[in-house]
């Protein structure tokens, strides 16, 4: 699959798919690996058995063994992780802001401008290249020239900053992937958006999918005839007359979901050049105001969006974990500039 050069727009934020099968009532008992080989395109017994061992295959919502025999009425769920193969990644010495790390996973605070993984237009210098170098340095396996296993469970856009979790073991990858797919992961973003809100909080429900004509963009489909279901909860944090600071909590994780949903309700992200936020959407016609906005664009030359909180059940300890990161300097300066402008504007009135 070809990827766009500027961002990983061709991929979903969640890097896995799920196949759900309900076994016919008249089905004779048969080993599940044999059954799935006949039902899943491109599946081999080895791949299926590995998926079962990693608990990526559930029957009636529970893990099973390779010798399990399916029966009529069974509900089978197969998770398929789509992360790039470790062997394809070249380790590169790129500094990483690692918030937390243990034997199963590590949390990275991704800077603006870093792409998640190599693709067309971004062959290297990505988060995965940096992660490969970091884990290679930790590896005690000196005899084999193999990288430690690791994988992306989700991603955030190139010009969005904030928290990403990466798995260091297949079992951790599987556990985290299921949590992302089942929408049980806590993800809170902070965004500066155009316009003022009548309400303090709300929920946006509209499918998100690729634009029918402009294939590099995504768009909202309120009737759900295209794309995938998407739900974003938002809450006003601070009002600055013509722009508003909001927090967004993702219930689903679709490509550009917050950016598309905010545009859909008439509040595009500040300086989002994909979705109409890189122009004056609200405000006055005065030259002084236009210059002020231009200065703001220069301070934060990307969409004003930061993945601030990430929480999930730890794959090994089974305890709830929550990680936070501070706003990067560009967004901090941008918000301060609008705060001072808003105070001055209110004082005039």
Key terms for this structure?
7 helices; Structural Genomics Hypothetical 15.5 Kd Protein In mrcA-pckA Intergenic Region, Chain A; 4-stranded antiparallel beta sheet; globular; Pseudouridine synthase; 10-stranded mixed beta sheet; alpha+beta; 349 residues
Q: State the order of secondary-structure elements, H for helix, E for strand.
A: EEHHEEEEEEHEEHEEEEEEHHEEH
Shape: globular
Mean pLDDT: 86
**Which percent range describes the beta-strand content?**
25-35%
Walk me through what this model shows.
It is a single chain. This protein has three domains: about 70 residues, Structural Genomics Hypothetical 15.5 Kd Protein In mrcA-pckA Intergenic Region, Chain A; about 100 residues, Pseudouridine synthase; about 160 residues, 2-Layer Sandwich (Pseudouridine synthase). The protein is about 25% helix and about 30% strand. The strands form four sheets. Strands 7, 8, 9, 10, 11, 12, 15, 16, 17 and 18 form a ten-stranded mixed beta sheet that branches. A four-stranded antiparallel beta sheet has the order 1-6-3-4. Strands 2-5 form a two-stranded antiparallel ribbon. The chain is built from seven helices and 18 strands. It is of the alpha+beta class and about 350 residues long.
Question: In summary, what is this structure?
Answer:
With 349 residues, the chain is an alpha+beta fold. It has helices at 32-39, 45-53, 127-138, 170-181, 257-264, 287-299, 329-348, and strands spanning 16-22, 30-31, 57-59, 62-63, 69-70, 75-81, 98-101, 105-110, 151-152, 161-167, 186-194, 201-205, 207-210, 218-221, 231-240, 243-250, 305-313, 320-324.
